[in-house]
Amino acid sequence: MEGDSELQDLYREVLIDYSRSPVRKGTVEPADLRAHGINPVCGDEIELTAAVVNGKLVQVRFTGHGCVISQASAAMMAEALEGADIPKARGLLASFKKMMLENAPVAELPAELETVSALEGVRRFPLRVKCATLGWNAMAQGLEGK
Amino acid sequence: MKTAYDVKRIREDFPILKRLIRGKPLAFLDSAASSQKPRVVIQALVDFYEKHNANVHRGVHTLSEEATNLAEASRAKTAAFIGAEKPETVIFTRNATESINLVAHAWARKFLKAGDEVVTTEMEHHSNLVPWQMLAQERGVKLTVVRVEMDGTLDLEKVKAALAKGPKLFAFTALSNALGTVNPVVELVKLGKDAGATVLVDACQWAPHKKLDVKAWGADFVAFSAHKMLGPTGVGVLWGREALLEAMDPFLGGGDMIQRVTLEKTTYNVLPYKFEAGTPNFADQAAFGPALDYLTAVGLDAIAAHENALADKARAVLEAEPSVRILGPKDPAKRSGVISFNVAGLHPHDVGTAFDLEGVAVRVGHHCCQPLMTKLQCGGTARASFYLYNDESDVEALGRALQRTLTFFKIKPGAGVA
Description:
The structure holds two protein chains of two kinds. By secondary structure, chain A is of the alpha+beta class. Chain A has helices spanning 5-10, 13-20, 68-81, 86-102, 129-143, and strands at 33-39, 44-53, 56-65. In chain A, helix 2 packs across helix 3 and helix 3 (68-81) runs parallel beside helix 5. In chain A, 40% of the residues are buried. Chain B has 14 helices and 17 strands. A seven-stranded mixed beta sheet of chain B has the order 4-10-9-8-7-5-6, with helices on both faces. Chain B starts with 6 loop residues before the first helix and ends in a 10-residue tail after the last helix. The A-B interface holds A 1, 4, 6-8, 10-11, 16, 41-45, 65-69, 71, 125, 128, 131 and B 22, 346-350, 353-354, 357, 364-366, 370, 373, 379-380, 404, 407-409.
């Protein structure tokens, strides 16, 4: 549609695909890591579960409800963190937050976060940044003490 | 002779309506959250600070007297606007939330004891639910919540059943902020009174649009907020029955609410000052009077007819799309200028952002009514609300924004119901 470079800037095709993808939706049982994220402003919620084997996140799943941004971002996070060990996972969370909250260039994102660069447009919609960080903040909580 | 509703002239009075949003004319459909302000209200604020500013109820100098008179004139106008005989039964607070909390603290905590019952409804704004939950937790008061029907209305039989055990308080909203449901206030008040309850009505969404007559309602407390009815932010109203207000102790202690203070003991000031501790928000209070004058001059009946007609048109635009689900009552008599809706497969926040790119301001989310959203099985809705300054161009913009959203997110007509 004419003029929708504006909407495309925020909602890249890949985000819509990820938000609708069932691949990492679900629950890992029994879970070695469990975390819950909620955005009180909009009521969006993410429930994260993960299996940790030999210090590695071997499977990350989420359930919840929310907008395209929060759901796509959580799905990308789950994908990017699978296979990472705990220190690596922490590093990826930090890189993501640096891009999202401190405007660090997407070119500086590690290779594991390549798809995440699609969230770059969210930075121009400050009210929506919290949607993008919801799943990542939940994971940061889940990793505490691990 | 009846003159036609001149929305063009009304729009001229609201400077913000000239704003462009991301290059598009603003279509402000979020008045249920907070209304825009006419120039007379903005000018009243400027005049106050430029010509009359000084603290009220203190000192004898000219400015203090003028400031006091302006703030008190607004109190008198508020009383007249809601049919209250005595201006001193109008308490100014910061907002309606504070008004309800004032009742929860100064009335309920004094007169309710463990085992007493408070009845409210599932369609309340959090501000008319959480204070009662806090009271229940702190004092062992029993909280009963009347369930809402799936069309967003109250079943009066269920209300009666909930009131059967003689609750001490019945607190309900006159008009649902999330769905726009118009409640049968007079009937509900009567049910509460017949059951022996003190009755509190949350009139936040009613007062800007419909005639509020505290005598005709027969309630004991009525709460509403200036900022939703063309007035400034930071001014809430609590009207209370005089005898109840007299029997209550102060809510906050400090300046202005005292008559005489010694180190041992304080005697409290008279109404309404007993409940207005500290320097009040007098500048905003002063500018609330002109807002009420403006509403009265246009006429609430004319405003309601205008906004309901626009809302009906907007409803038709939304209903034309099979993927759109409108929540709330089907019965036009129970509807107001508020339309709550969802688009199949789309979260309200994504709807809200896409609409904003078309200049259309709608509220999205749970509308501070999470229990109601849970009941209606949605995390939230998009809400378009109409007011006196909206016109056909806003309905057209809503239609454009909807089409743009459906196209961009590839929502097919057969996507089902949201």
